[in-house]
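User:
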Amino acid sequence: MYLWIEEMLSPISESAIIIRCGDMISDEVHQRVMSVCSMLEQDHMHISGLIEAVPSFASVTLFYDPYLLMQHMSSSLDSTSTTIEIGGSYEHPRADTSATSPYIYLRNLLLSSLQELQSAAASKQARTVTIPVCYGGEFGPDLEYVGSVHALTPDEVIAIHTAGEYLVHMLGFAPGFPYLGGLSARIATPRRATPRLRVEAGTVGIGGEQTGIYPLAIPGGWQCIGRTPIALFRPDDNPPSLLTAGDRVRFTPISIQEYFEHQGAMS
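Assistant: Predicted structure:
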C-alpha cells in the first residue's frame, strides 16, 4: 500500500489543494492519480464545497469553495453524529476540532481517506478510442524528419506509431489536448527548436517521449507527423473533450481521400 503522508498535500491557493501521487510519469503513478480522482468524485456527494478534481501526470489538484467548506465544517462540529461518511466507503473520526482553516480541515479529511485508499484500480472503466490519422504530406510535414533522426523510413515511423497503445495521462496546454504516454523510444524525438506559429486542429505530433493531438489551430512546437479529421474539442458537447485522463488511444492510418470522407461525414 502506498504510504500517504501530510507532506504530499499542500495548498496552491486559498481555494485549491494539490495531492501528490508520485514523483515520476508511470502507469503505476497514473493509476494512483485515477484512484484519488475516483475517491473525490464520490466525495462530491457528501462534502459541501468541493468543486473539481483535475488530474495531471503525478498529482491531483482539488478546487474547493472555502466558504461552503467552512459551513460543512461547522455543521459537522454541531452534529451529534460521531462519524462522517465519505463516498459510502470510508468512515472518518468526529470532525476535526483542531482545524483552524478550511484548508486544514480539508487536508485532514483527505489524509484520512487517502490512508484507507487501496492501490486497486479506479472504478472507472477505461475506454479505448481509435483515432484515424492521415500521415505525412501537408498534414505531417515533420514525418520525414522524425524518420531521418532514427534512420527510419516514413512508412516505418507510421508502422511504429500505429502499433502502440497510448495512455491519456492528462489534458492540458489547450482545451482537449491529450498528453499520451507510451510512445516507442524508436521514434521519440525532441520538440522543434522553433515552434510553428500555427498548427492546424487535428494535427498529431511527437514531443520527446510523448505523442499528442492538437485540438485547435494554435502555435506549437511538437513534430507534426499527421492529422486526424476527428474533432478533439467539442464545446457544444458535455463533456466537451473527446478524450479524458485514463482513456487508451490507438492510431490507425487512413488515406487523404478517407480523411476528407471522414470530414464530409461529420459536417
